[in-house]
Write a structure and sequence with these properties.
heterotetramer, A: 405 residues, Aspartate Aminotransferase, domain 1, 2 domains, 7-stranded mixed beta sheet, 17% strand, B: 156 residues, Sufe protein. Chain: A, disordered C terminus, binds pyridoxal-5'-phosphate
């Protein structure tokens, strides 16, 4: 698959926005979907649909095999040790809630501490916040440096003897900082602290190897990874899934049910209560195929070139201020324009078909720290080109013209 | 739809040079408003005299051009209005922003209506409606002398 | 829309199973999808895709409007008072977990009682079971009568002064019994007890009017209602959604976030944390349209004729024993064959393209009570015909022949 | 694929008239197995003599034709086998059901292998594999004299 032709695989780009070509720079929010993923959903519903795991008839058996096949594909894609370490959820948010809830129930006591960072998305803060009230725990935030990075030292400084879990992002959805997660994991483990990585922004862009990183939990949103909406993946080491209590209760996750009590099923069923997102899981198999066909190394190279190009272009534009300056930066370009609010920028860019996001990007703590109420964010996917970034820059200039009238 | 519909001269002017951006001395009513999605913030100060007239109105805050312009135009308009008139104006404006093609009130003149109508461009941008209405909702809170911040619950 | 031509709207029936026409009698498990629903998913992903509610650009605004439009459609479809009484979840199982968890947190104390029935699906038992451990509550089960029904009297007898919630199915997915939910609701309210209805089997088949029924909570699975997988609806009275604490935490459901604390958003955001199942919600709008085009009255009439016909045919077949004999019966025909285990029946029927389910159908307590380890279940959807039931009967006869060899 | 592949004469015969469906007197090892998805249940009783020979084996239980036939054929076969042989047979059978085209063991003769191979039809029906293997897993538990029910955790 030629990286320069990838755009053709995404049918959305055949459409116009306000009579302009779509310049989609909002992939950190959600990625567009390749044709093969959309086709798979269509074919499954029109030719093969059945619920999974519950009936013995032909369609049900076929659907169950397809469903489990995606689990195995995902296991290989992130190099997990065991397919049962892959739990399907409705999104990364649910994945983190699952861990916070079950880990909190079983292991946290009053006075215990959770260590987050100032870069965290609300989805990796609010679930832990619940435990403050419920369990009387404390939440600490490792501080960013002036470049908007989280260093190993910043984590090390923030660990206390009471730290019971470290939960950090892989790649900041605002500054683009890529955290040294392997080093942080080994630091955490040297102090016997388990670690959760919010991999929402890591998974679509970076090569993943769970056995190499060695983290305890890794949360993924499939819709940011060229997959369908309504689906996430929780990677968790088998020892945790075996030890933690179940999360939601319902059909499919039990072993035996009596009026007096219930015994729970084995992995992977234990954490997949009720009818799952069958069609989405099956279609997500195609997203993995799509990523494999291009090769994650090629994606990393392409996106890192684009990111550098985007930084250059925006740095040359004197009115643009980039947010954060991390040495190891992923596909995110957040910026401000003097005297023009981010929401005004986004609205004006939209007229040209340039889709970016404006606001605090679910990172209010970070924005408070930076003293910014809102930023504009252009974020990249595999389908973007240098041309897209040139158009972004042109539109920014138009923006200035309108406001300088 | 043309972008000029939204970012008209008048909005850019009020957005960049907001009128009444200060704090009324000896204000006797005030309220804070916050639009957490955009980060827009506004704090409105009122001085209401014994006849229930607004003898002074001002605001402090920060936000996008639409929200700043809206607060600026609104405060300009409300000066010397009676409490009852304020209520009518707020309702009429919100109605116009939501669905009505024009303002119906007879309290203000055509020239003033035109100024307010310049904010109607947000109708094409549903996500921006809150920017245009924040100051107006906050004014209502201030009139009711509500102690709580408009649109912001207590911390949990 | 002619009820006799409905099958044509379901593309799955163009396919063969083991070289036979598909006789799909597993709709209680999950329904097939009409063409218009599948097309909507396809079109959304290929022409209009964006995440909802977070960006101000064109695609995001359009997607948000479509998403909220389904909420309004659903409000009208079930005649809820307010669109904000519609919460999208990943399924009925999550909907019930949401209620059990948040209601349990806020209102249940040691010794309090929850009243279920012996008909309940595991999804309407396991979430309450969690509260036994967590809160020391007790669970009571209203008993079925000899016809496999739950009567108003059976509920009344089981209510105690400690009953804090009644949670019952609308339509049993095993005996087909339709419960007098309106009467039970008014009984519950006369004793100040809130009531949750598990509407999984009610929603696809029966006319729903939340204001008339007046229940506090009603849980729905969209995939059983001709909609996509991975989506459910919780109807809840606004007073409850305003009062109960939030469930999962994450982006989109907060108002303000600081290091020290968090304030939560208004309805409907409060209960929709993280990126939602955007495409599924939008496509589910087409499911509602589909149901409206036929008319739920016509569906009820068609399915009730079919159910009666099925009962007749199977009653005439001397070796078939129907499970339960409720006077008010929905589209479910569970049965046993003397000397032939349900799983053997299902496998043999499958060879003829007849898809049924065998097992305890996630109702182990009911099966224990009936002294049956497993039953076979044929369940109906709007696309079924009398011919399907004749084919079912033929295959049952073949089954007997094989076993009588 | 023909249904006869699964519901062969021999399976129907053993399914309807299971051999060794009784409880061994003075058994010295036993285990219960349960397949909650189908409701299949089996309880296996063993009498093992001082030379580690199975001097008697029997079972009680209920379930589908496949699971009953499997328990019946299995118990017939295991009589008078040595502990080591039992282990080899179980492994070989499970291997065959999962992936191997035939049984490799030399402990049993062709006639006995043919009987076991009649259960290989379940390969076409992945949901039914557990029915065919339940008795075998339970036998292993019994040999290990495991006190817990195979496949069933304690209540929570
Ligand atoms: C009566 C009943 N309740 C609850 C459920 C659970 O629904 P879901 O699996 O879609 O969450 C089902 C279906 O499986 C059901 O039939
Ligand atoms: C860093 C990060 N964490 C968590 C999330 C939440 O993911 P989702 O909304 O798909 O559950 C997102 C995306 O919104 C994100 O960017």
């Amino acid at each position: 698959m030629n990286i320069n032709n990838i755009k053709k695989q995404f049918p959305i780009f055949n459409n116009k926005v306000h009579n302009n070509d779509l310049v989609y720079l909002d992939s950190a929010n959600s990625s567009q979907k390749p044709q093969m993923v959309v086709d798979r959903i269509y074919d499954f519903y029109t030719k093969e649909f059945s619920n999974v795991g519950r009936s013995v008839h032909y369609l049900a058996v076929a659907a169950t095999n397809l469903y489990e096949n995606t689990r195995s594909m995902m296991q290989k894609y992130i190099n997990a040790k065991d397919p049962n370490e892959i739990v399907f959820t409705k999104g990364a948010t649910e994945a983190i809630n699952l861990v916070a809830n079950t880990f909190g129930q079983k292991f946290l006591r009053e006075g215990d501490e959770i260590l987050l960072t100032e870069l965290e998305h609300h989805s990796n803060y609010v679930p832990w916040h619940y435990l403050r009230k419920l369990k009387g725990i404390k939440i600490n935030f490792a501080e960013i440096n002036n470049d908007g990075e989280i260093t190993l030292e910043s984590i090390e400084k923030s660990i206390t003897p009471k730290t019971k879990m470290i939960a950090i992002t892989h790649l900041s959805n605002v500054t683009g900082a890529i955290l040294p997660i392997k080093e942080i994991t080994s630091l955490a483990h040297s102090k016997n602290i388990p670690i959760l990585i919010d991999g929402c922004q890591g998974a679509p862009h970076l090569k993943l190897d769970m056995q190499d990183i060695d983290c305890d939990f890794y949360a993924i949103s499939c819709h940011k990874m060229y997959g369908p909406t309504g689906l996430g993946v929780l990677y968790a080491k088998k020892k945790w899934l075996d030890t933690l209590p179940p999360y939601q209760g319902g059909g499919g996750m039990i072993r035996e049910v009596k009026k007096e009590g219930i015994s729970f099923g084995d992995l992977p069923n234990k954490y997949e209560a009720g009818t799952m997102a069958t069609a989405q899981v099956i279609a997500f198999g195609e997203s993995i195929k799509f990523l494999n066909q291009i090769g994650i190394q090629n994606i990393e190279k392409h996106e890192s070139e684009l990111t550098k190009y985007g930084e250059e272009v925006l740095r040359k534009n004197n009115s643009v201020k980039l947010v954060g300056n991390p040495k190891n930066k992923g596909s995110v370009l957040s910026f401000t324009l003097d005297g023009i609010h981010a929401h005004d920028i986004a609205t004006i860019l939209d007229e040209d078909g340039v889709a970016i996001r404006a606001g605090h990007h679910c990172c209010q703590i970070l924005h408070d720290k930076l003293g910014l109420s809102a930023t504009a964010r252009a974020s990249l996917g595999v389908y973007n080109t240098k041309d897209d970034l040139d158009k972004l820059n042109e539109s920014i200039n138009k923006c200035k013209k309108i406001f300088d009238r | 739809m043309d972008l000029k519909d939204l970012y008209q001269e008048i909005i850019l002017d009020h957005g960049k040079n907001p009128r009444n951006l200060r704090k009324t001395e000896n204000f006797n009513k005030d309220a804070k408003g916050h639009n957490p999605l955009c980060g827009d913030k506004v704090h409105i100060f009122l001085k209401i005299d014994e006849n229930k007239n607004i003898s002074d109105i001002s605001f402090e805050g920060s936000g996008c051009a639409i929200s700043m312009a809206s607060a600026s135009i609104m405060t300009d308009l409300m000066k010397e209005k009676k409490e009852k008139e304020v209520k009518e104006l707020v309702e009429d404006f919100l109605q116009m922003i939501k669905e009505s093609p024009e303002m119906k009130t007879k309290i203000i003149n055509e020239n003033e209506k035109t100024k307010l109508m310049s904010l109607s461009g947000v109708k094409q941008y549903p996500m921006r409606v809150k920017c245009a209405t924040l100051a107006w909702h906050t004014l209502t809170s201030a009139m009711n002398n509500s102690q709580e911040e408009t649109n912001t619950e207590k911390f949990d």
